[in-house]
Amino acid sequence: MSRVTFKGQSYDLDDYGFLDPPDQWTRSFAEGMAKMVGITTGLTDRHWQIIRYLRHKFLEEDTVPVVVLACGDNAMRLSELRSLFPTGYHRGACKIAGINYRFMYETNYWLTYETWAPLKPRYDLTQLGFLKDFETWDEDFIETLMGQLDPPSSPTERHLQVVRYLRDYYVVNRLIPPVFEACSANDLTLEELKDLFPAGFRRGACRMAGLPFLG
Question: Which domains does the chain have, with CATH numbers?
Answer without folding.
Answer: 2-109 (1.10.10.370), 118-208 (no CATH)
